[in-house]
Amino acid sequence: MPPPPPPLPPPPPPAATAVDIPLLVSSAKTQSERRVNGSWTIGRLKARLEPVTGIPPASQRLLLRRYAYAGGAAADGHDDVDVDDAAGGGVGDTKTTTTTTTTTTTTAVITAPDEALTTLDAWHLNRNSEIYVQDMRRSNDPGHYDRSRNEDDDDKDEDDLMTARYALPTAVYEARPDSVLAWKRDGHLGRFDPGAGAKRAAARDAHEREAHARRIEVGRRARIGGEDTRRGTVRYVGDVPEIPVPGGGGDGDGGGGWWVGIELDEPVGGKNDGSLAGRRYFGVRRPGIKTGVFVRPERVEVGDFAALRDLEELEEL
């Protein structure tokens, strides 16, 4: 007689039937509504939260806020459940943080010894739940932006949670071999160029010659760049150390070269009132209105340009 057939293996467990639950997911920098399935494990949830919050799973601390009506009824119509009892103990901590005349907010930490196997069903998620993601990295770790370490900090403003910026001392920066300053110094660029002084002097002489060739003098009528809307009167010709120029040596010469100060007839393209950094180069007829501008001589054209009384006159020309 043939031996009896081996027993059939047990049937596989039924597939999870949990539905997606829409709830709020927030952090110090993000807030959005997301769908979360109670059949997910904590590890899977953290992995899905990383692209949403920018916080690596290992640095996430998940706080579940559950809202219930005052008097013990949960916001979804069921009795409120203690998280420790539902999860078998040791899964999460429950703490009442806010109580009003109408609702009670409880906060629980979503955690477990084995987050890769523990599902979210134990926390009884509902539509009125919120998951807050804390960043537990130290403030000097790359990508860190939330130094909050406990749920008592959850309601603080973002500015209160930001880490103070660190400023590298000048002496330390200048001593670093991998800085932009070191690159310029090694390449003899900018103020480290041995010929920088001679180049600035040559540029200054070229601007001065251009001003003389164009007969730019104080009191002459002029226009800028050939634009009739930018007519005015020359009020100053000479050096303006306050204007920074690329390649300047930082020695107060502004990089070299002459500038032409013009008081415009109308404040179209005006930049100042004839003064820069507290130093006045010329006065204007209408104090407080920016009708002054400084330009290079090559952009100035002098001539018998009539004064613009207002912008409408331009349409009649």
**Lateral arrangement of strands in the main beta sheet:** 2-1-6-3-5-4
Q: What is the end-to-end distance?
A: 120 Å
Give me the secondary-structure category: alpha+beta
Helix content: 10-25%
What's the overall geometry? elongated
What portion of residues belong to β-strands?
15-25%
DSSP summary: helix tally: 7
Mean pLDDT: 76
Describe this entry's structure for a reader.
With 317 residues, the chain is of the alpha+beta class. 17% of the residues lie in helices and 25% in strands. The strands form 3 sheets. Strands 2-1-6-3-5-4 form a 6-stranded mixed beta sheet, covered by helices on one side. A hairpin with a 3-residue loop joins strand 4 and strand 5 (103-110). The longest helix has 18 residues, at 196-213. The radius of gyration is 36 Å and the shape is elongated. The N and C termini lie far apart (120 Å). 21% of the residues are buried. Residues 13-17, 72-101, 145-163, 248-255 and 311-317 have low confidence and may be disordered.
Quick overview of this protein structure:
The protein is of the alpha+beta class.
Record keyword descriptors for this entry:
317 residues, alpha+beta, 7 helices
Helices and strands in order:
Layout: E1 20-26, E2 31-37, H1 42-53, E3 60-69, H2 83-86, E4 94-99, E5 103-110, E6 129-135, H3 158-161, H4 170-175, H5 180-186, H6 196-213, E7 221-224, E8 227-238, E9 259-264, E10 275-276, E11 279-280, E12 292-295, E13 300-302, H7 313-316
Parallel strand pairs: 1-6
Antiparallel strand pairs: 1-2, 3-5, 3-6, 4-5, 7-8, 7-13, 8-9, 9-12, 10-11
